Amino acid sequence: MKVFDYTEIPAQEAEEGAKDVTVRWLITKDTGAPNFAMRLFEMKVSGYSPFHTHDWEHEVFILDGEGIVRSEQGDFPFKPGSVVFVPPNEMHQFRNTGKTLVRFLCLIPFKK
Amino acid sequence: MKVFDYTEIPAQEAEEGAKDVTVRWLITKDTGAPNFAMRLFEMKVSGYSPFHTHDWEHEVFILDGEGIVRSEQGDFPFKPGSVVFVPPNEMHQFRNTGKTLVRFLCLIPFKK
User: Fold this and answer.
1) What CATH number does the domain containing B38 carry?
2) Nearest-CB residue to A33 (from B9, B79, B85)
3) Is ipTM > 0.95 here?
């Protein structure tokens, strides 16, 4: 068993195409996880992730802040306590449209 | 894509052996998830989950409240922002030893 504070994991710059976003890989294969990874993203005011797609899903829980998830079906607002499920192969982008830091968990499966 | 508030999912009594614990199954196969489920637990003051084991892992993030995770290696304290990884086949129990409601996310893989 491993128990630690999320701030013990360093924040790294997020992927190319993101603006003002960092990611902490909280639980990974190195932790011993067999199936999926837990990450915590922090997105500054006006920050965003790329509008993109990939063949794996996202399971997201919003911890702090407000914004929108952009999709091909339009924009969905989020706030603390929002749950977001993005299926594989669906275009998506997270945007901080509020006035405070956005923090959310985003879990993804390991690639087979 | 699905975006909703966690309170839209009803809280159910948790499993046998738990005391004062409810669970909301936020993301499941019915949501369209292919690999793993997201659940949110609420544990009242002095509540606990059973001290038990199973052949799947837990990936946990503490949202609110304070308590301990009991294991065969001793007790680990947790607080908001704590991350808990419980590997498959390891004994574990969550206990609310604080003075406020404990809320945490606990994600598990679907059984093959």
Assistant:
1) 2.60.120.10
2) B85
3) yes
